[in-house]
Design a protein that fits this description.
Layout lengths: L2 H11 L4 E4 L15 E4 L7 H9 L42 H7 L17 E10 L11 E10 L5 E9 L15 E11 L4 E9 H5 L12 E5 L27 E4 L1
Parallel strand pairs: 1-2
Antiparallel strand pairs: 3-4, 4-7, 5-6, 5-8, 8-9
Length: 260
């Protein structure tokens, strides 16, 4: 099949070409810079055709976010060097370094990052804060942390939007375990937010989410709570908030985060 050649030829004749992809995983897109847009439709069942038409013609505002990272090359996939068997055994040598964790650790730019997704409107985050945190004498089973952020529709069309909350562990030490720089720990979504309207999104992290970032041997158990639209976009969010939610805006720094 010469699908890529067909898309390139059509795009050469009409630069406003929109490509609709129905797939269950990552695919190569060598023609990406030649087309006006891409709709990743997945497998939507019997109503897939109608759903795609509603998106393309603007009847419905898209709000999907990628649940996987789309790599630029096959070599950028974490398991690319281990996919064959060795003496009838397959070794999963990538460990926890898969998906966006693999890309972040090795400074590999994906084609589209985990969490990426476009909309016919725009959204703005503000007032990121921790509304409750574990007490100093709390037992592990009672550990929980509640964080919230305000989401505002700054565009001209109603839309839905999901917010991703990540955890960053303390700096690595000689006696600590190695952890990814950021890991997704919670998310929530606002639906049909009207232009100019805002809504507060609140999530609770229990002991499992909190302990996943703890380095037990280290005495420093501070965590950072970054926020972003996509995992590769965490560094480009404006503002920093402290534990009480007071904004420390530094547009040259980028990341929105709260420390606890």
């Amino acid at each position: 099949m010469r699908t890529n050649d067909l898309i390139s030829a059509v795009a050469a004749a009409n630069p406003k070409t929109i490509v609709v992809i129905q797939a269950g995983s990552a695919v190569s897109m060598p023609w990406l810079d030649q087309v006006a847009g891409v709709v990743f439709a997945w497998y939507g069942g019997n109503e897939t055709g109608n759903a795609i038409a509603d998106i393309v013609y603007g009847k419905v505002n898209p709000s999907g976010r990628l649940p996987i990272s789309l790599p630029k090359r096959e070599q950028d996939i974490a398991a690319s060097t281990n996919y064959k068997s060795a003496r009838n055994k397959i070794h999963y040598e990538e460990g926890i370094w898969v998906g966006y964790k693999h890309h972040n650790e090795r400074k590999i730019a994906p084609l589209f990052p985990f969490g990426h997704g476009l909309s016919y409107t725009t959204f703005e985050y503000s007032d990121l804060k921790i509304t409750s945190s574990p007490k100093s004498d709390a037992k592990a089973d009672d550990w929980s942390l509640t964080a919230s952020v305000k989401v505002k529709n700054t565009g001209k069309k109603a839309g839905s939007h999901s917010v991703h909350f990540y955890l960053t562990p303390p700096a690595e030490t000689a006696t600590s375990l190695r952890h990814p720089e950021v890991t997704l720990q919670a998310f929530d979504k606002v639906y049909d937010l009207q232009p100019g309207a805002d809504k507060t999104v609140e999530v609770t992290l229990d002991k499992c989410e909190l302990l996943s970032a703890i380095i037990w041997i280290s005495a420093d158990i501070r965590r950072h709570l970054p926020l972003g639209r996509a995992v590769q976009d965490l560094e480009s969010r404006a503002g920093r908030m402290d534990r009480q939610g007071r904004s420390k805006r530094r547009r040259d720094e980028g990341r929105s985060e709260v420390h606890y």
